[in-house]
Amino acid sequence: MKLQYSMAHEPLLDTSTRDELIANIKNAGIEKIWIAGFFSGKLVDIEELKQAKAFAELHGLEVGAVTIPIGHPGNALNPDDPDLDLEIPEHWHYRVDIQGETVYYCGAIDKCLIEDNGKAAMLLREAGFKEVFLDDDLRAGNFNEFIEGCYCDACVAEFNRTYDRRETRESLLVEMTQKKNTAIMKDWVAFQCVKVTDVVKATDIEGVQPGIMVMHFGDERHGIDIPSIREQIPDTLFRVGEYQFNDTRFTAPHAKAEELLGILYHLSFIDKKFAYSESTIFPPRSLMEHNLVYKAKLAITAGLENVLFMSGTWVLEASYWHAIADALPVLRELDQATANVPRAFPVHLAYGTHGAFAEAFVPTSLPLLAGLPVKAVRADQSGEGGELLLFFGDYRLSEQWLAQLPSYKQVVFDQAAAIKNKNLLEKLQLAATNIVIWDQQATARPSAEQLLSLQRLVAQDSWDFPRLAEGNQVGLVWLKDGGKCILFNLLETENEGIVQWADRRYAVQLAPLSFAILDVSGGLTTYDTAIAL
Predict the structure, then answer these.
(1) Pairing of β 42-43 and β 102-107
(2) Span 244-270, mean pLDDT?
(3) In 3-state terms, what secondary structure has residue 411?
(4) Residue 242: other Cβ atoms inside 10 A
(5) What pTM was computed for the model?
(6) Average pLDDT value for residue range 185-207
(7) Phi (first) and psi of residue 492, to 5 degrees
(8) Which tens digit of pLDDT belongs to each residue from 346-357?
């Protein structure tokens, strides 16, 4: 585990407060900081960056650079600071959405924007930075399931030239919303992905390791083609996206579950050594200290070694640093107990076929809340290691998925998926013996009845993997090779349940928001940290 922090450079130059800040950072176990050097087309003063970097290094910290390569729609950096300069340069042009509306503060990716990011990387290298991490505004769409991109006249014309088409913004609006012509959807998505990848490539200069911070469940529909980026730029760093940045969202058990599902989904595409968490608070002070610590524990549970705390351009206050410092021994113990042990996920949650299909965006958290060792898997990924496939939601049973089905011991379709694929399923059921139609429809916020129903359905067959047989709102990640599993309470109250592991049953009790490791002999080791509800 390596704890890291992303911040603006100015606090490192403030002689009245920087010594206390550095002391807090060091006491919290932070080993590396990332400072912002390029904001929406404007480079931060190089001499100031050098001074900030030198001060941090003098105190034993590693230092990398973060950039805001195209600009965030709206003030997504620090609402406390109305004077924050978020305008893009005059020689860039704004992204235009599918309705023809300007997306302010956000540049469209064109030749001059790509060149400016390349120049920024060179200047940061000259200032001594060896990594340039591109913040998660580097995408061609917002947090939703739709296929976006820039639909301005110039970008549509470029698309037509590149793909030999005769489209207009109006015709693309029809194609992208009706979702019937997969060929043009794939072409438009590929067009956006090339642009995003080209920005990463522009920072891939000698002496600099590039990185891209990927949005929560971000994929090709947002211009983010992780496999392609890895193929073209093998050493790229990736931050795997999270989403619930404040207590209002993160307190809900399904939100915590969605956060872990998103991390695990991206990790299927990325080597662990290149992967970073996003343990973020936004807006300022909107996430309680114990929830920030919980995010770090979730990252460790997923198998991440690089735990990256973020807070926009405002600096974490002393209470957060003290909370991390207090939790540090437990974080290290949890990390040491789980390090270098692969996470096994015999339960797969079907998550569409490809981003270009623009299917449901965030999968249901139901199986994780029900205590199954589950991860979201796409049809174009290998089904290796999967025993039980849960096909839940409005996803199409594509040819790629049809080819995967025989590799699973059992495939369960909920009512939404069964209706979506009614004709195909009727034919499949005549020949296949591993298909089950569940009488429930998985939802984004599952009820206790749904959780119990799924547990009962799974219990009708025999499985060797650990799972929650009684109780709910307890997550489970299987450390198969280590003969252990990680349990984590998703509730702010005490929780209990029964873990079924092959033919053995173990009663477990978990303190509020606590983590524990259960071994195959029934031993339970807890990893509690202080919480203030």
Answers:
(1) unpaired
(2) 94
(3) strand
(4) 24
(5) 0.95
(6) 98
(7) -90, 15
(8) 999 999 999 999
